[in-house]
Amino acid sequence: MRTLGLVLALALVGCATSTARPSILVQLEEIHGLPATTQSGAAVPQLLARAEQLQADAEAAWKRGESVQAQALGERSRAAYAALREVARAVKAEQRLAAVQAELSTLEGRSTALKARQQSVDAELAELERLLAVERDAEVLAPASAASPEREAARRDAARRITAQARLYCAAAQLLGGKTDSLDTELESLDTSLAKQLVPTRIDAAWKARASCLEALTMARRPQLADHPATGESDALMATLSHAHLGPSRDERGVVVTLTSSGNAASRAAKRSALLEALSPIVKSYAGAMLVVTHRARSEAGKTDQEQAQALAKELLLRGAKQVTPLAVGARLPLLPPERPESAAANERTEIVFVTPTL
Questions:
Q1: How many other C-beta atoms lie within 10 A of the C-beta of residue 300?
Q2: Can you count the helices (H) and strands (E) in the chain?
Q3: Is the pTM of this model over 0.90?
Q4: Could you give the CA distance from residue 357 to residue 177 in angstroms, rounded to a whole number?
Q5: What is the tens place of the pLDDT at every residue in 275-284?
Q6: Residues contacting residue 137 through CB under 8 Å, at least 6 positions apart
Q7: Which among 52, 84, 131, 274 is placed 20 to 30 Å from 100, CA to CA?
Q8: Peptide bond before 22: cis, by omega within 30 degrees of 0?
Q9: Which helix (H) or strand (E) holds 251?
């Protein structure tokens, strides 16, 4: 009797064991029903399909009575759901990153457009300021009356400086296509008057000629400024020359590199050679015109001021310059008062001017 009872008990336990649903399958149903699983599946549907297939295979194995196989397939399905969540997080992170990068690209585009507009406005403002300066200089001055000999001498010195500046502006304007024939004639007349020391000194006419030459230069640049308001050619040239340690500067004519006359003849020749060597690749790539301006009160190596300018202009042409105009202004535009002991080293100089279409 006891044996029969034991057999019945074991049979009942076996039936319960064979019909109990494995916990892994219960877990899979819970995982499948989570909102996070649905969201992850929307991001990576192929991985969701894989996890669901493994879950279905596990269910089928259990129903066939293959509990071990069902457990193994269930574990694989649970791992697939975990992988689905991780990959979905990565995909969403990449999507957010792409959205941020797209927004950043849009903002950068707007920033570039604003910078270009700012450059255009700055260029237009600078142009208006230059035109205003030209108008101020062009204001009619009352003709100067005769003065004391000392006052007339001071006026002649000032008039020589002013007409020298006028010549440089007119020369730059010509290289940019400006018309200055009548102004050249006026400057020749002024030079003749100053050489003869006619009284009263025509300083008012000198100021007017300077203003007219500056206006011609400004007007010659206007078409280029209208077509390319923010090209930055002058800035790029300044950067290139600075990188070559040539110490450039900028004025109304364009970008200027200056060779001073300090030292003895041998050191000056060495500096000149080094300058030309450094300038060669820049000159060759520069498409615009150039001025060579010598500022010397005396000849050097048997060459006059103008001959020195012509010799340097020829060397620049041999090194690839497209167009070079030589000019000599003598001692008319000193940087320091001539009476100062150190003035010669600063005042006697050569300027290589890149006449840029825009400033």
A1: 15
A2: 12, 5
A3: no
A4: 10
A5: 999 999 999 9
A6: 207, 210, 211, 214
A7: 84
A8: no
A9: strand 249-251
